[in-house]
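Lecture 7 notes: from sequence to structure.

We start with a single chain of 79 residues. Read the sequence below before looking at the structure.
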Amino acid sequence: MKRILFPVSLVSVYLVVYHLLAFGSPYTDLVILMFVFSPFMVIWMVYRVLKDGNPSGRTFTEYFYDDIDYKRLPGTDND
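Now the structure, written as C-alpha cells:
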C-alpha cells in the first residue's frame, strides 16, 4: 500500500493544481504544459497501481463488489 500511495497522491495533487490553474490563471503556458503531461501522469499512476497493488483474492462469482462484503445470491450466475 505504501508503494502506491506516493503515485496516487502526487497525481491527485497534480490534477487538482492543474484544474485550479485552468480557471482564471495568467499562466496559460504552464496550463498547456500541464495539460500535455497529464495523460502521462495518469498512465504512470495506473501502471504503478496495477503493478504494485495487492489483489484482494475475491472473485466476481463470490462477491458482487470488491470493497464491501456483499455476497452474490446463489444461483444468479450472470456470466
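The two ends are 31 Å apart (CA to CA). Keep this in mind for problem set 3.
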